[in-house]
Model the fold of this input.
Amino acid sequence: MNYDHIFSTHLQSLKAEGRYRIFADLERLVGEAPYALWHTPEGKKKVIVWCTNDYLGMSQHPEVIEAMMKAATRYGAGSGGTRNISGTSHSHILLEREVADLHGKEKGLIFTSGYNANEATISALAQALPNCVVLSDEKNHASIIQGIRSGKSERRIFRHNNLADLRENLESLDPKRPKIIACISVYSMDGDIAPLEGICDLAEEFKAITYLDEVHAVGLYGPQGAGIAAQYGLQDRIDIIQANFAKAYGVIGGYITGSELLVDYVRSVASGFIFTTSLPPGVVAAAHKSISILRGNTILRDKLWHNVEMLKGRLEKGIVPFQRVSSHIVPIIVGNAAQCHDVCDILRREHDIYVQPINYPTVPRGQERLRLTVTPSHTPEMIHHLVDALEDVWGRLNLSLAA
Done:
């Protein structure tokens, strides 16, 4: 069998469809955000980044960097192994206490990534509950979907943010079956927010466990940046809150919070936790410092939201169609993979703007888009420059216009 031919054929089909992924070689430098250096065959070029998940620029915060360096200098670069062998340190314990307190839960458990946290936790829960069924929003993240598959439980997919469809699915199930309702607070591609109160009502009525992914919400929403559930006073009604340190907190790693018994169960049986080397102490210290900073003041969040509204307001006056949602994410639908790639290429090469195309399977075919994220570091001049550049590209490529 010619394995290379199989791989090559698959790659050629991706290229023909216009969704072959090309990574720009970027060099982000501390103190220069939102600028980055783009390494091209012709040399380095400075571009403005408009698609970061480092929403508040905390990866470059001096105190976060200092905490990472001090911990690495004191404890070393690595953790020493998996948590159950030699990789649990006091800094891990302190961070777990911090996230539990942030969400008003009894216990926290940290993982190497948000993906790892979702997959390991959901699969462990599904395996523990006999004849379990997981009711999953149709736009849930791949990590949640993989967790359901790994847990080998039945999956019921309900229409996105549709409480009526969720109710119909719940009503069709045996009342005695264990049930988990899994959803996301802020959906990262559309930027819309889950109807959490209604989901909690249904979970209580049908005696289901609630599992909430707050990855794109922590640090940005709610008191002390605790997320959407906290913003709407629903933390006590959510059984498991999962989030990570890689978005607004600017580092890496994931976590869950919940009751002491539930979290201890996951700690004890989830293979994705047990068999993974734990987070390095420098990373843990940086994440802890970032959370502490954002719990203590709202300056960066206030600046972010000011810029978000400025960008949306400027787009509303123009020709480029965008989805006006209540979150910080600004989706602009192109609807074609090749055209989406062309838009990003022109923006980068001619306007010094870096944004990546979002294609299938991240979004459905026909929903290819730009996903813009503004940060506290973007200036009004940068925002106007971005919108002017978008309008120039939209006109040149004869793309669909705003109504």
In short: Residues 62-296 form a domain with the Aspartate Aminotransferase; domain 2 fold (CATH 3.40.640.10). The mean pLDDT is 96. The chain is about 45% helix and 15% strand. The longest strand covers residues 43-49.
